[in-house]
């Protein structure tokens, strides 16, 4: 196994950039430090973020604040029942003057794509995102168009119990590196919001504090973070345990293991370390794995949620020691 190659200067550069972005977002989103941290981890790990919660708690505001903090191309797609797959990926249109078909890009052709209320579109339209989220490319009429890096989908969705929503397909959920919930703000944060949000929209005053080129460099720094074999084995043991338990009808995929390790590398880098600790992996299990899992009928009948099952599995897996090298 290679030894760490990330320098202290690289980590200092990353820390400074992430601090700027975090502070910028917190001008708009108050009292949600943990949710903001999760979003930044996903950004540096080249993943996609799913924000799920009830209406009105700031899901879209968080997505927009992160997007506006980076000087890059940003597109917003409002998912509705009548949205077509071609609205997402693009379409070939016949040009009468040139007598040729020309491609008109859809909403995914941007560095950051904000998908608002993704589970209000039909499963067919949701599936239009599958290729671009996994392969960073779009294929239309047998022609493949590559998407520029960085590429991140930040999608919001309402709980499936709410009217007018569809359940995200398993393949779609598996492509999101992490799922977070905003939750209701504490009273002090809600009072502060009344003072700052009723006069004007704070998003209007938000200026970029980094750009796409710097984010690409930060992603490269995260890629150099060292993951020792025992930590890799620990990550595999965690995801494997979800596949064996009878309490889950669907366990974590190998893609989930990859996402878990990549997110742990980003978290370690943000913490100023050039190596991943088992605690980095363990702390991310709920955020990275829970939305991919399905409880069995027996578990549901006994009132066992996915979170309950996952907590028990994580507690049962032995944590490695001496895992830096």
Q: Would you give an account of this structure?
A:
This protein has 325 residues and is of the alpha/beta class. It folds into two domains: 7-223, Rossmann fold; 225-325, Magnesium chelatase subunit I, C-Terminal domain (Helicase, Ruva Protein, domain 3), CATH 1.10.8. The chain contains 15 helices and 13 strands. The longest helix has 19 residues, at 8-26. 41% of the residues are buried.
Helical proportion, percent range: 40-55%
Write down how many β-strands occur, each being a DSSP E stretch of 2 or more residues. Answer: 13
- CATH fold-level topology of the largest domain: Rossmann fold
User: β content, as a range?
Assistant: 15-25%
Order of helices and strands: HHEHEEHEEEHHEEEHEHEHHEHHHEHH
Helical/strand content category: alpha/beta
Please identify which CATH superfamily of the largest domain we are dealing with: P-loop containing nucleotide triphosphate hydrolases
CATH class of the largest domain: Alpha Beta
In CATH, the architecture of the largest domain is: 3-Layer(aba) Sandwich
Average predicted local confidence, pLDDT: 89
Question: Based on CA inertia axes, which overall geometry fits?
Answer: globular
How many structural domains can be distinguished in the coordinates? 2
- Count of DSSP helices? 15
Gap between N and C termini = 9 Å
